[in-house]
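Let's do one together. I've listed all components of the complex below, 679 residues spread over two lines.
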Amino acid sequence: MRYLLVEDNQELAEAVVNRLALDGHAVDHAASLAEAEDCLAVAQYDLILLDVMLPDGDGRDFLARSRAHLETPVIVLTARSQVSDRVGALDQGADDYITKPFDFSELEARCRAVLRRRGGEARNEIHLGDAVFDPLAGNLRFGAETIDLRNREIRLLEVFARHKGQILSKSQLMDRLFSYDAEVTENAIEVYVGRLRRRIDGMGVRIETVRGLGYRMETTEA
Amino acid sequence: MTGTASIGRRLTLLLAGVAALLSVLSWWMVTGLARQAAERTQDNVLAASVTTIAETLRSEQGEVRLELPYSAFSMLGAISEDRVFYRVATGDTFLTGYDDLPVPTEQISSGGRVIFDTGVYSGEEVRMATVSRLVLAGTQPVSVKVTVAQTRGGVASISAELSQLAAFLSVAFFLVAVSLSAFAARTSLKPLNEIAAAVSRRGPSDLRPLRRAAPTELAPLMTSLNRLMDRLGQSIRSAEDFIAEAAHRIRTPLATVRAQAEIALRSAKDEDQKQRLRQMIRAVDESSRSAGQLLDHATVVYRSDDLVRTPITLSDLVRQTVAGLEPTAAMKDIRLQVEMMEGKVQVDPVLMDNALRNVLDNAIKYSPPETDVTIAVSAGDSEIRIAVSDQGAGLGDGPVDMLTQRFQRGTNTQGVVGSGLGLTIAKDVLVAHGGRLELETLEGNKGTCATLVLPSS
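Okay, and this is what the predicted structure of the assembly comes out as:
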């Protein structure tokens, strides 16, 4: 997926770019509306993350202006949280909004929800052994069978799929899977991994336990 | 009358007072004139009558003689049915008529001038006309005094009749004047009322200047009203800009802190360090959430005073709010199940969305992962109920009423970020719409049910 992040705060932008890059997304960063225009002129994006207050104008005005010719879904990042602002952002053509400061897991969940709602245009399916995993639709296709996964299973499988062959520690997986404030122990990861193993059983891909270090996904042929 | 009484009523009363005064004055004048006219008529006839009698006086063999002409009395009978008396005398000698009829004692010249007087005779008021004439009795000229008197019943009845007519006309005039003044007051105040209506019809945030034709007298009022609206709009805008700018200035660095802390959390190896980073993130969340809800609460309080009620389809509202929280729920694998009912409601959509979102957000927050939250919309006889049930730990054992008070949180909320304002906001919104928020722990402690109750419109 290719994202465009329009945000004038350099540190925040970097953090968001890094985080989204971890999930395998390519993110271009524009620090102003003018830069955003330039980016939009030369590249196709799957999703735009748009700050409201930018040095050269209001993000919502930009949205209202460009909505007519802009097909790309937009999530508004706003520090204004008043009810009327939320409604306003959606009225002006935003697909969703997220209030600063935000949880990365929530940002990601909202991106996923928006992309799923807009649906269809850009699929990034991942081949896992004999199965095809569609993280956006949240399902696994294996032969004629389509298995719907729960949200956490999807995210867990996505981490494994994007880091095939790498060892992932339990705490790495925890950070990826749970919002920081969920009081979970590492046992929870064992439960989810166990569940995911049963889901992908016999699909030519498995999750190995690396004693003392964590887990690793391997395709059977390899 | 107080200084703040209605201008319309004041104007009407003032004009009615003037009309009443004029009516009484005109009645009094008409009555007086009528009486005068009647009296003058009687005097003229009495004068003619007495003169006629006096002209028949003659002397015959040294004696004064007279013939009472019939016409002298018939002309008196022509104006009324009043009784007529007469008296003819020379000096102290009574000749004919009513001897005891009072006569003017003053010396009357014999020039034929008629003297009028008013007196009482046989218990009735009478008008008397007296004339004196010299008659030659033998060689001696004798002054003969002729008096004709008539009671005044006719004059009184004529003037009473006229006065009654005048009174009747005055009352009619008064009534017409009062209704005209009420009409005039209403008509001249109409532009003022129209302006008032136009202002009160407006929503709380509509501060556009008034553009309507107004009479010249109201132009200064309109101008100052528009100037006030303009200033109000400017100060609201600058307050909003300030809040937005302040929120932006505070929240953007907070967002950076949070993002960096989350990245640090990811790479931290030491459990102790991780715990500290989590606490840091929690503090950031706590402060930003409180700030957000305080602003929401202020919005609710501000808008509750003057609800912008719009007819909306309930299912659209619920669906939209639920869709907004779907990703949050998905993060915990919580399913949001909606049991919908079709129907329209008259509510402020911004506030209702806010109330429902707060209740739903609570349900999601306090639910264990992989459970269901049910949103059931149903309609009773007089109310519409939106019941949000979760499978969480229930409300705890504190008093339920306390939970909807500002900054109060339940007894079993440890470890969950919250400001203690969510349910207060929901309750305030519902109360403003004439509804209420019901909270209960489901039987067997199997969760909580929060119901948003709205009166059906």
